[in-house]
Model the fold of this input.
Amino acid sequence: MITIYDIAKRANVSAMTVSRVINNSGRISAGTREKVKRIMEELNYIPNSTARSLVKQETKMLSLLITDITNPFFTTLARGAEDAAHQFGYKLLFGNSDEKLSKEKEYVDMVLSTRVDGLLFAPASDASAEHLAMLNVHRIPFVLVDREVPGVEADMVLGENRAGAASLTEYLVSLGHTRIALVNGLGTVSTARERHAGYREALERHRIPYDESIILEYGYNRFDDLDQLDRILRMPDPPTAIFAANNMLAVSIIGYLRDKGIGVPEHMSVVCFEDVGMASKLDPFLTVAVQPAYEFGYRGIRLLIERIRSKDEMERRVIRLPSDMIVRKSAGAPPDRL
Amino acid sequence: MITIYDIAKRANVSAMTVSRVINNSGRISAGTREKVKRIMEELNYIPNSTARSLVKQETKMLSLLITDITNPFFTTLARGAEDAAHQFGYKLLFGNSDEKLSKEKEYVDMVLSTRVDGLLFAPASDASAEHLAMLNVHRIPFVLVDREVPGVEADMVLGENRAGAASLTEYLVSLGHTRIALVNGLGTVSTARERHAGYREALERHRIPYDESIILEYGYNRFDDLDQLDRILRMPDPPTAIFAANNMLAVSIIGYLRDKGIGVPEHMSVVCFEDVGMASKLDPFLTVAVQPAYEFGYRGIRLLIERIRSKDEMERRVIRLPSDMIVRKSAGAPPDRL
DNA sequence: TTGTATGCGTTATCAG
DNA sequence: CTGATAACGCATACAA
Done:
């Protein structure tokens, strides 16, 4: 490996001089600067950032922890995060918790020892508080993205889940639906609670009774126990519409309905939070509330970098990003009205 | 920051003893081991891997460079890579070249200075050879994934593009099509060349004339200049089917046809290489050749780790992964036969 | 079983 | 404008 000493020897200067030209620090005569630069080129020298990190106590690495790398929302978010990081001279370490606390913990341990300069964190659930506490112990700055955690004070980039869910629900109501099922994420995740609140709020506004028996809960990426859905379909007064709290759930639900021969939207209307990536381009079918996923990532990283630079002197910042309802074809009037 | 010296002082041992219990190396009396461990717990000690990397000359970090982070093929590949890396105790640094050589170069420079132990590399084009050469200069092991580069000898995980493309084409032929357009990726990318070869091979096998005027070339992620497509649609004898060389192209083409009021498959059959993620779950519509994307990533990382461990003593390995044709509904008999 | 000296590649500090 | 020295946190080699 070529080091600054190799360069120094060849250039007949000290290692410090080489270091200075690399970092453009201190005054250096044009002559030696050119000479050193030339030799660095010749020898294909590349600074060792490990060594630099050790002395400077910073790695210029940020970490992004998401809960589902196969979900287009998170990959688009990742894209935004990567762009921002790259733009500001940071590298990005990715992690995928799969919505699992155990994987999340392993990942937190990993980044702790890697000494990243900061973390953009999408917590798997409220229980992530414990992992966040570890970050605090070790003074690693972090920004929460997409989800918040009760009791944890931090910079955050969140969606307007409540308003978005209310709009989607009201849209169904405007179509004539009064029996609207909610297939939600787990109650331990803030977005699920907020979407639930928005749903309920819309119902109340229109004096539609809230019925717990048509509220279902699943993990955002694990739609396994279909019996629950089956149960509400077999009710004497089954729902005529389903509000799925995220895209994966919506996709699974529609597949399930298709297998049962239940047409969407003829027999059942379906809307959901989050767009479905390529699917909506291939066939603009699903009516959704789209979140600005790229912005989540981009602004999250920016916030994080500002936090790192300002240490604890900046006051806490929370950004709320609105979602945008896109009406397509998966919801229509309830069948009994036709 | 807590260091091994802090632990050592509290435990009345030397730093080396602490280092030994951390690494389970050398013989240590059960007593001191326990004592040291307890104190590490108390102080929330976490080893500084930057320092460790510097002395051990390895970072336990691998890097994955893909060309499109929004393409489900690559995110699934990434998922496999991450699983493998995690399983073998490596961290994964992600990069996204966007099919652009300039971004690829920046990324290569970055990882070079980060001193990752190895790279899983999906080259943007044949011109990536230059960047690969830089890796060789600095003795960074790498494995090529999805695409190969002429003149570059390396371990690789590739798809059976030729056979897959031939199957897809033959399927169209079996449906009765004889005018089949190919909307391909750039000729500077190995997969595009191989898919083209497979297409041509199938045509020849069935004595169908090969017509260059219905071969189009686009970047895999940039389907902009639609005039080309328009031109072949207006031909006196337009194609009755289109073979899109990747998923993004297929999605764009179908959107374009839809806007023109051309129904798929009634007026035009469309098939493509690569599945379309959620879209195929939401509506199993597109007939495709699916590649085992997860395996690409998982096996790529395994190959890379084996290469790192064996230095240059292992012989070169090339893994070819077959694709699987899934017949859905986007292709049918040519309209003039109905 | 445990400790001491040294070095990994770089930068901060202070001296010249 | 340039250089010598120490330090970052840890592990290797050797000694005790």
